[in-house]
Amino acid sequence: MKLTQPAAPFRLFSPAKMLALFSVLCSPLLVLGQTSGKNNRNAIYRSMGNKGGLTEHSLKITAGIGAASYTGELAGLGQVIKPIFGGGIIYKIAPHISFKGEMNFFQLGGSDANGKNEFRNLSFRSRNLEAYGSVMYELIDVDMSSRGQGIIVNPYAFAGLGFVTVNPTTELNGTEYFLRRFRTEDVTYSAATLMAPLGAGVRFELTRRLGLGLEAAYRFTFSDYIDDVSTTYINTSAVEPLRASLIDRGPAVGTPRAEVGAQRGNPSSKDSYMSVGIKVEYLLFPFDNISKPKCPAALQRKAPKVKK
Predict the structure, then answer these.
(1) pLDDT at site 285
(2) Cα torsion angle, 44, 45, 46, 49, sign
(3) Low-confidence stretches of the chain (pLDDT beneath 70)
(4) How far is the CA of 8 from the CAs of 5, 254, 304, in angstroms?
(5) Alpha-carbon gap, residue 135 to 227, rounded angstroms
(6) Looking at the domain that runs over 2-299, which CATH code has it been given?
């Protein structure tokens, strides 16, 4: 199968640039964790909002795999399920509260086949990259003293903001085409868009360092072109044959050519996608010893020397 490449001006949000952006956003947390680990491997910092209590700061790395599907104009009866995998970090900043940063690679797909819009004959698939940061709330505030004492079941929820790439393709006569390049609705849309993840899961703290989680998340995107379908048909008689064939796929299944301005999609709602999966977590930096504050050197009294 041949794969046509999009024109250079559309390569504004390459996976490499998304990875660099994610690294920049999360690097302060990694530096903090490494510095704390070197200076005081097991340190507990006092929480200003905990009325003198102790907040245990920790840093975890995660990796996971699962399945993803999308909701949009091409989400018909035969819903397409695609793989998703990735990883991230979880940094605890307060009791029950953590920062979660994650990057995932996944695929999406959809088709009119066997659905109410089968006459339209549109389909897409895409290879996507997402990166986001979120705030996580854990039902149980697990401390170091309870780790390793048995399996702890800890439900959690999170919400955040991030980016996802937008690069739908379709197959025509054995060749896969990047649809964004052909402007099927005379709209130039970006190669990436904002998205807001909202999810929940349950974590099983298996040992002092190792955890296993089951998670489901829904992503609201700010684009209606995840599937390249949004508004109305344009005049296909005024464009080159290949572009016309990608705009209106109905004639391939015996449907008459769509009239100019006929409804092609539903612009009133944005596309979205969701995922379910299993994650493995590893605690990098546990801080379980109390770090006592020291008085300034000028106020410290030296013990008198004993003469022998």
Answers:
(1) 80
(2) negative
(3) 1-56, 77-79, 143-150, 286-308
(4) 9, 35, 76
(5) 29
(6) 2.40.160.20
Query: Which residue is listed with tokens 């245990």?
Result: 56
Q: What is the pLDDT of residues 87-103, one digit of tens each?
A: 999 999 998 999 999 99
Q: Domain limits of the chain?
A: 2-299
Q: Which residue has the tokens 């008689």?
A: 237
* pLDDT single digits (tens) 254-280: 999 999 999 999 999 999 999 999 999
Q: What is the sign of the dihedral through the CA atoms of 242, 244, 248 and 254?
A: negative
pLDDT at 302 (0 to 100):
54
Encoding tokens for residue 173?
Answer: 């006569």
Which residue, among 286, 281, 288, 218, has the nearest Cα to 90 in the 3D structure?
281
The answer to whether residues 134 and 159 touch, using CB atoms and an 8 Å cutoff, is yes
